[in-house]
Amino acid sequence: MQIELNLTTAGISREYIDVTGYDSVSLQFEMLQGTSFGTGVVAIRKSNTRTASPAEFVPAKTVTSPGLTELVAKDWEKATYLVLEVPTAAASPTNVLVTVALKKNDGSIIDSPQEVVASIDNNYLDAFSRFRVSEPVTLFSSQCQYDAEPLLFESGATGTGGVTPAHSANTRMVALSCTTGTGTSYIQSYEYVPYQAGKSQLIFATGLFGAAVADAVVEVGAFDTNNGIIYRQNGTSGLEICLRSSTSGSVVNTTVSQADWNRDPMDGTGASGLTIDPTKVFILVVDAQFLAMGRVRVGFDVNGQIYWAHEFLNANNLAVPYMQTLSLPIQMMVTATSIGSTKTSHFKCASVSSEGGLEDDLAYQFATPEQTVTAGNGSRTHILSLRPLTTFNGITNHAYVKAKTIEVLVTGNSPVQWELAVGSTFSAAPTYADVNTTYSATEYSSAVGTVSAVGLVVASGYVAASNQAKGSLETHTTQRYPITLDRAGAVRSLGTLSLFVTGIGGTSASRASITFSEIR
Q1: Which residue ranges form the domains of the chain, and what is each CATH number?
Q2: Phi then psi for 76, rounded to 5 degrees?
Q3: How many other C-beta atoms can be found within 10 angstroms of the C-beta atom of residue 296?
Q4: Whose CA is closest to 12, among 322, 271, 251?
Q5: Max alpha carbon distance in the chain (Å)?
Q6: Closest CA relative to residue 409, chosen from 501, 311, 324
Q7: Which of 41, 186, 258, 300 has the most beta carbons within 10 angstroms of its beta carbon?
Q8: What's the sign of the alpha-carbon dihedral 356, 358, 360, 364?
Q9: pLDDT at 112 > cutoff 50
Q10: pLDDT tens track for 247-279
Q11: What string of DSSP letters covers 85-104?
């Protein structure tokens, strides 16, 4: 394995090597550039934690010239990590290439890069220490290219100071503002992007905080009021990273100020030498294990390189899960408590990927009971609707619902056009019943309604029928439209699927059912 240490006068470059279980480590140093190796003395230190301050590192050896250095167990005693460190005091930039070979207790050398790198924390590994490959499965994606994506996001404002978010045709960003008074301006995805156990969840969000304003807080990340991972500008108090949890029965925010970020404070003093500027656009990166007990890393993509700023280490540290769920919405919010001026921030893009894929066969599959109706002659007639329950087992329902197949059978004598729509409104509302009271988080219309507006038709087709022959149809459907509750946990028309039939040339008796899946 090779590690390149980049020495500049701006900071310290460190790499941690987990030496647990090894008797010796061979390190081959080679100067890549610089006037002489002596300008870039490499210190080999030892530490029991990744979060120790430099003062806590115990020196093991100092390398002042190129060549092979071998350390045996006595050099690090019971330390967990060897730390390769290029110090700040160097006179001129020098790049040092380090070749590392770890020897097991039986004396054998590990030659497999996978085996070596797996013990080192870097950007090539996902949240579960598996090699990253270029095949993540995108679960959620938005760009706000033409508008604030109202089919994917709920946006709005509260209080006397909150301003409804507005899309810019020039920047293609969404402005969130608060003016004099109190209130919030928010944009939140309707979808609580599903997490599957054992998969690394990779989250990107981009935007702009802008200059800090006293008593105005800006938050962005994957979060709601109860749980979440948040990057925050806390008025004029500075930048923060927050882990929100309600596992105690009430909301607890574990907030870490920028100076205390344990990977890199991003203030110019850390290993990267970078300083985060809130008046410039950001690419926020969150890499999370869940399994309710895993690690969460939060950082930034700068110039194509991910720099981790802070990590929350939960396994073997907590007595309860670190959050209730990692299935969370993407959100940006500006909150004003008593500002006397205007605070404006901007939201642009978001992406959530599962590194390892989202496996549909792990979803729960259900089907609605068959519903019957006589399709009106040339008149759109409601036959079936499907929507989430507001609660499931007493908990606000954020299950991911996806229609799989639509089945329509015509038993009448006239052909029928069928339409699948979201956002339908009714002059006489349908009656709803649970698909399955014990096992399903979804309800269906057990009695039809009277449609007043069909809404947005997302699929349609025809079923032939006559006196001599009857027709049926089974069609598979795909959808990007989130079948969800709104931000407050209430049902909404655009979060409801409705099926309609229209007789062609006469009325026609029809039957229908929908097969769907739930991921929760």
Answers
A1: 2-117 (2.60.120.680), 137-358 (2.60.120.200), 361-519 (2.60.120.380)
A2: -115, -5
A3: 22
A4: 271
A5: 95
A6: 501
A7: 186
A8: positive
A9: no
A10: 999 999 999 999 999 989 999 988 888 999 999
A11: EE-TT-SS-EEEEEEEEEEE
